[in-house]
Design brief:
The complex is a heterodimer. In chain A, 77% of the residues lie in helices and 0% in strands. Chain A is built from 13 helices and no strands. In chain A, helix 7 packs across helix 8, helix 7 packs across helix 11 and helix 11 crosses helix 12. Chain B is mainly α. In chain B, 74% of the residues lie in helices and 0% in strands. Classes of the chains: A mainly alpha, B mainly alpha.
């Protein structure tokens, strides 16, 4: 198992390297160069040179790239162009807010989506199925920032049940959860829609299989057939796409954080775009894709755990 | 799956599938609204009137007025243009890049396929909104730039689908027959493979238009959309967010417009998918 994990990790490293390289060079083709973009086109040649020196942009591009990779391997992401503080420490501060949000959204999505998916598959073409399918279609058609605003307006402002702004105090569990609830519910509802559709269709596929018929024919209780024989197999395709869903959640967290003013990575990224803080932007995007890789890796490992037919090649 | 002509697919969709039919009607309605918005809008969407700032919905202004006293209904009707143009054009661009890429990878195999796969892996590791945001941060805002940004983000997803379908066709007898009579690879891909994978890509295409509309709204919500004062739904929601407590209609109505458009495209996709996957047909 460990061997497989390590091998998979070595396998994704070149792709991660390609991602980092792509972001690095893309940032450096900003019209006029990042320094001009930060200072504006009216900046004096001297101040541009100064900033370029500070950013290391006066060196040849390949030297810059080499230094950047070396620093990255040491966990050094450079300094913010605006606050002049190391980017990595800012990311470490913001990360818990984003992880809380994405994992919370996923947790809500799984705990609502799986039962709804099973129910709609079992009651196929009857009222609960139609209701579930329409609701899930509504869910995937809803931009997360709009759902976020609606929940904020109804549950936060009108009913005043939850705080609507900020991320709360990380050291105080109650405050952390209170501030997490509405944003996580926003992403959770959308995830529920995705997961319930997935579970429904794979459940329908599995229920038509021979082994389900065999299980029924040998007189097993319907509950055993559904939960032990059908569901276990139906969940396999769902688990494989959890990595993709995490990527959707990560994208969704950006807008949700903006709406709820959560000081997470997404908010940091949008501010970096507005401030033209290219070092910050580059770092946050690299961290985001590193997490997508990590979640995909975990999905793969989980996959081998729940489906013993798959061997660690 | 035997090849179905586009027209036959469409007719079957209407006959057998109410979901798709409703989706097609709703989508047509949105498209028509976008086309005739200059004639049906009660007011000029960019005309400001500071005397009627934040007016609640009324007979004169059914969706209220915004922070500059502009009529919300007119702005929403006009906003359909940006959403649809971006949604449809970006998917078309992404198809023009992604289909050839995926077909070449899947058909040629070997080192070329490896390269295509790497490309797909690298670009798929960015969530769509984040890749779009990165591209726009580099190029600056603007309608055509949003189209490019979203197309870049969708291309690897379309390439992956095209590659997969091509792979499954590659071993079929009719492809081997074409090769045996000496047709070259380009010809085989265009004449024999493309028509057979296009139906599937079209089904997903409607789903991607829905995604593209959401991404456009998200990017203009962040402030990277078309330049003001051109009305765009995402930007309208952002402008209304500060006034959520005293003028909730400023965010609620444009959001509803986004939702209805996306929902319509998703309905079509849902119905088409049921037809192309008989196991799931209800």
């Amino acid at each position: 198992m460990l061997k497989y994990a390590i091998r998979r990790m070595i396998f994704v490293l070149p792709t991660l390297w390609a991602v980092v390289t792509f972001v690095f060079f893309l940032i450096r083709i900003v019209p006029g160069g990042p320094a001009v973009a930060v200072l504006g086109s009216y900046a004096t040649a001297e101040s541009i040179r100064e900033l370029e020196k500070q950013m290391g942009l006066d060196k040849p591009i390949l030297v810059q790239y080499g230094n950047f990779l070396m620093d990255l391997c040491h966990g050094d992401l450079g300094k913010s162009l605006i606050t002049k503080k190391p980017v990595s420490s800012q990311i470490v501060q913001a990360l818990p807010y984003t992880l809380d949000l994405t994992l919370g959204g996923m947790l809500i999505g799984i705990s609502l989506g799986v039962p709804i998916g099973i129910l709609t598959a079992l009651k196929r073409n009857r009222a609960p199925d139609y209701a579930g399918r329409i609701l899930s279609l509504v869910g995937i058609s809803m931009p997360e920032f709009y759902l976020g605003i609606l929940l904020m307006y109804i549950l936060g402002i009108k009913l005043d049940l939850f705080p609507v702004l900020g991320g709360g105090d990380l050291k105080n569990l109650a405050s952390r959860l209170q501030h997490l609830f509405l944003p996580a519910l926003t992403l959770g509802i959308i995830m529920t829609a995705f997961i319930s559709r997935m579970v429904r269709s794979s459940m329908l596929n599995v229920l038509g299989e021979d082994y389900v018929r065999t299980a029924r024919a040998k007189g097993l209780h319907e509950r055993v057939v559904i939960y032990k024989h059908a569901l276990r197999n139906a969940l396999i395709p769902t688990v494989t796409v959890i990595g993709i869903y995490m990527s959707i959640l990560m994208g969704g967290s950006v807008l949700t954080e903006i709406i709820y003013s959560r000081p997470g990575l997404g908010k940091m990224m949008v501010f970096a775009v507005k401030d033209r803080d290219y070092i910050m932007l580059q770092s946050v995007i690299i961290i985001f894709s590193a997490f997508v890789f990590l979640f995909n890796l975990l999905t793969d490992l989980l996959y081998t755990l729940i489906d013993p037919r798959i061997e660690y090649h | 799956m035997p090849p179905i002509s586009q027209r036959a697919l469409l007719i079957r969709t209407f006959r057998n599938n109410k979901t798709s039919a409703i989706g097609v009607f709703m989508t047509l309605a949105v498209v028509i609204i976008a086309l005739i918005s200059p004639w049906i809008s009660p007011y000029n969407p960019v005309e400001q009137d500071m005397k009627i700032q934040h007016d609640a919905p009324s007979w004169a202004h059914p969706f209220g007025t915004d922070s500059y006293g502009r009529d919300q209904l007119s702005r929403i009707l006009w906003g359909a243009r940006v959403s649809l143009v971006v949604g449809i054009l970006s998917v078309l661009f992404a198809m023009m890049a992604g289909i050839p890429l995926g077909m070449i990878g899947g058909y040629k195999g070997g080192r070329i396929d490896n390269l295509v796969l790497r490309f797909i892996d690298v670009f798929m590791s960015f969530p769509i909104v984040i890749l779009g945001l990165l591209v726009l941060a580099i190029m600056g805002p603007g309608l055509i730039k949003i189209v490019i940004a979203i197309a870049v983000a969708l291309t690897p997803r379309i390439a992956r689908l095209a590659r997969g379908s091509t792979l499954s066709l590659k071993g079929k007898e009719f492809i081997e027959a074409a090769r045996a009579v000496g047709q070259n690879d380009t010809k085989i891909m265009i004449i024999h493979i493309l028509p057979n994978i296009f139906g599937e890509i079209l089904v997903m295409g409607t789903l991607w238009v829905a995604t593209a509309i959401i991404v456009e709204a998200s990017l203009s919500f962040i402030g990277l959309g078309v330049r003001p004062p051109t009305p765009s739904w995402g930007a309208m929601i952002r402008d209304g967010l500060d006034q959520l407590t005293n003028a909730p209609w400023l965010s609620i109505f444009p959001g509803l417009a986004i939702f209805i458009s996306v929902f319509s495209f998703n309905l079509i996709a849902d119905g088409l998918r049921d037809i192309s996957d008989p196991k799931l047909r209800g």
